[in-house]
UniProtKB/TrEMBL annotation:
Keywords: Metal-binding. InterPro entries: Cupin_2, GPI/OXD, RmlC-like_jellyroll, RmlC_Cupin_sf. This is Cupin domain-containing protein. GO terms for molecular function: metal ion binding. It comes from Alloacidobacterium dinghuense. Pfam families: Cupin_2. The keyword Metal-binding applies. The keyword Metal-binding applies. SUPFAM superfamilies: RmlC-like cupins.
Length: 136
């Protein structure tokens, strides 16, 4: 699962979605033209979902998480994820260790490690996830 309760709507409507035998096509699309999906006070935007020229699965999405919200309960999956936080403050727990990160920060979750994210700030937190490897 990529971002829990938002994932069903996100993965099925990604902006650049390649067929099983074709890599993700090149594209440029302004942020304000990306389709947003809401769930409560949180918003998600799919950016791309498909395979690279080397055959690796790549999925990217943006999330704006409401204060106090979690996108889903802690979980684990085969693919790896890179979180890039652009606004707000989140607590990310990876393999039982919690860290607080702010704007400009990054977190990486290795395959199979349990992890979870929660907005611990008083304002929305915006982050981008780059998921690499086998789909969950």
């Amino acid at each position: 699962m990529i971002i829990g309760s938002l994932s069903g709507s996100l993965s099925s409507t990604s902006l650049a979605q390649a067929t099983s035998d074709q890599p993700i096509p090149s594209f440029a699309l302004p942020f304000d033209q990306m389709t947003a999906h809401t769930n409560g006070g949180s918003t998600g935007r799919p950016i791309l979902n498909g395979v690279t020229h080397s055959g690796a699965h790549l999925e990217v999405h943006e999330t704006v998480l409401a204060p106090g919200a979690m996108p889903h309960p802690p979980h684990h999956h085969v693919h790896e994820e890179l979180f890039l936080l652009s606004k707000g403050t989140i607590e990310i727990t990876i393999a039982g260790k919690s860290s607080t990160i702010g704007p400009g920060s990054a977190a990486f979750v290795h395959s199979g490690e349990e992890h979870g994210v929660r907005n611990i700030g008083q304002e929305p937190a915006q982050y981008f996830v780059i998921a690499i490897g086998a789909e969950a």
